[in-house]
Specification:
Layout: E1 2-8, E2 13-19, E3 22-23, E4 26-27, H1 37-46, E5 54-71, E6 77-84, H2 93-104, E7 111-124
Antiparallel strand pairs: 1-2, 3-4, 5-6, 5-7
Length: 125
Protein backbone atom coordinates (compact mmCIF):
# COMPACT_ATOMS: atom_id res chain seq x y z
CA UNK A 1 0.00 0.00 0.00
CA UNK A 2 1.27 3.50 -0.75
CA UNK A 3 0.39 6.71 1.02
CA UNK A 4 -0.26 9.83 -1.01
CA UNK A 5 1.38 13.18 -0.30
CA UNK A 6 0.26 16.25 -2.21
CA UNK A 7 2.78 18.92 -3.15
CA UNK A 8 1.79 22.29 -4.58
CA UNK A 9 4.22 23.40 -7.29
CA UNK A 10 2.64 26.71 -8.32
CA UNK A 11 0.75 25.23 -11.26
CA UNK A 12 -1.26 22.57 -9.43
CA UNK A 13 -1.11 19.77 -6.92
CA UNK A 14 1.17 16.81 -7.60
CA UNK A 15 0.62 13.53 -5.78
CA UNK A 16 3.71 11.92 -4.28
CA UNK A 17 3.52 8.26 -3.25
CA UNK A 18 5.24 6.92 -0.14
CA UNK A 19 5.54 3.09 0.09
CA UNK A 20 3.93 1.49 3.14
CA UNK A 21 4.24 -2.19 2.23
CA UNK A 22 4.71 -4.36 -0.85
CA UNK A 23 2.35 -7.07 -2.05
CA UNK A 24 3.55 -10.37 -3.56
CA UNK A 25 2.81 -9.36 -7.17
CA UNK A 26 3.45 -5.63 -7.00
CA UNK A 27 2.44 -2.47 -5.26
CA UNK A 28 -0.99 -1.55 -3.92
CA UNK A 29 -2.14 2.08 -4.03
CA UNK A 30 -4.51 3.91 -1.75
CA UNK A 31 -6.54 6.88 -2.92
CA UNK A 32 -6.87 8.43 0.52
CA UNK A 33 -6.17 12.18 0.39
CA UNK A 34 -3.86 13.48 3.08
CA UNK A 35 -3.58 17.18 4.05
CA UNK A 36 -1.06 19.28 2.09
CA UNK A 37 2.52 19.14 3.33
CA UNK A 38 2.54 22.82 4.33
CA UNK A 39 -0.51 22.36 6.58
CA UNK A 40 0.94 19.20 8.15
CA UNK A 41 4.26 20.91 8.88
CA UNK A 42 2.51 23.95 10.38
CA UNK A 43 0.43 21.75 12.70
CA UNK A 44 3.51 19.83 13.82
CA UNK A 45 5.50 23.01 14.43
CA UNK A 46 2.95 25.31 16.07
CA UNK A 47 0.12 23.00 17.05
CA UNK A 48 -3.46 23.29 15.93
CA UNK A 49 -4.50 26.18 18.20
CA UNK A 50 -1.45 28.46 18.31
CA UNK A 51 -1.48 31.50 16.05
CA UNK A 52 1.89 33.17 15.59
CA UNK A 53 1.92 36.97 15.88
CA UNK A 54 4.59 39.02 14.18
CA UNK A 55 5.87 42.44 15.23
CA UNK A 56 7.13 44.88 12.59
CA UNK A 57 9.72 47.53 13.50
CA UNK A 58 10.74 50.23 11.02
CA UNK A 59 14.43 49.92 10.12
CA UNK A 60 15.10 52.58 7.49
CA UNK A 61 13.67 54.45 4.54
CA UNK A 62 15.57 55.48 1.42
CA UNK A 63 14.80 57.47 -1.71
CA UNK A 64 15.99 55.90 -4.95
CA UNK A 65 16.15 57.99 -8.12
CA UNK A 66 16.77 56.36 -11.50
CA UNK A 67 17.92 58.58 -14.36
CA UNK A 68 18.99 58.14 -17.99
CA UNK A 69 22.58 59.03 -18.84
CA UNK A 70 22.40 58.33 -22.57
CA UNK A 71 22.08 55.49 -25.08
CA UNK A 72 24.27 52.45 -25.66
CA UNK A 73 25.48 51.20 -29.07
CA UNK A 74 22.18 49.38 -29.73
CA UNK A 75 20.13 52.48 -28.93
CA UNK A 76 18.93 51.20 -25.56
CA UNK A 77 18.80 53.75 -22.71
CA UNK A 78 21.59 53.68 -20.12
CA UNK A 79 19.94 53.88 -16.71
CA UNK A 80 21.77 54.78 -13.50
CA UNK A 81 20.38 55.14 -10.01
CA UNK A 82 21.29 57.00 -6.85
CA UNK A 83 20.03 56.08 -3.38
CA UNK A 84 19.69 58.61 -0.60
CA UNK A 85 19.27 57.00 2.83
CA UNK A 86 17.89 58.25 6.14
CA UNK A 87 14.62 59.59 4.79
CA UNK A 88 12.18 60.20 7.64
CA UNK A 89 9.46 57.61 7.90
CA UNK A 90 6.92 60.39 8.45
CA UNK A 91 7.85 62.21 5.20
CA UNK A 92 4.90 62.48 2.82
CA UNK A 93 5.16 61.05 -0.69
CA UNK A 94 4.74 64.53 -2.18
CA UNK A 95 7.68 65.80 -0.10
CA UNK A 96 9.94 62.94 -1.19
CA UNK A 97 8.99 63.55 -4.82
CA UNK A 98 9.60 67.32 -4.51
CA UNK A 99 13.04 66.82 -2.96
CA UNK A 100 14.05 64.27 -5.60
CA UNK A 101 12.99 66.48 -8.51
CA UNK A 102 14.69 69.54 -6.95
CA UNK A 103 17.99 67.72 -6.35
CA UNK A 104 18.11 65.95 -9.68
CA UNK A 105 17.08 69.05 -11.65
CA UNK A 106 20.68 70.14 -11.03
CA UNK A 107 21.87 67.29 -13.24
CA UNK A 108 21.61 67.31 -17.01
CA UNK A 109 20.01 63.86 -17.08
CA UNK A 110 16.25 63.21 -17.13
CA UNK A 111 14.65 61.35 -14.22
CA UNK A 112 13.16 57.98 -15.19
CA UNK A 113 11.75 56.86 -11.83
CA UNK A 114 11.55 57.93 -8.18
CA UNK A 115 11.09 55.28 -5.47
CA UNK A 116 10.65 55.35 -1.72
CA UNK A 117 11.96 52.11 -0.19
CA UNK A 118 11.05 51.30 3.41
CA UNK A 119 12.45 48.28 5.21
CA UNK A 120 11.11 46.69 8.37
CA UNK A 121 12.48 44.16 10.82
CA UNK A 122 10.03 41.30 11.52
CA UNK A 123 10.20 39.50 14.85
CA UNK A 124 8.03 36.92 16.58
CA UNK A 125 6.23 38.20 19.69
Amino acid sequence: MLRNRHLFLGFGFVTLFQPVHMMKHGLAFTHKRLPPLEETIAKQRWGKEKIMSIKSTHAETAMVVRYQTGLNAEGQPLIRQKSLAKVKESAALEEVYAVATALFSLLEYPIVEIRRNSSHILTEE
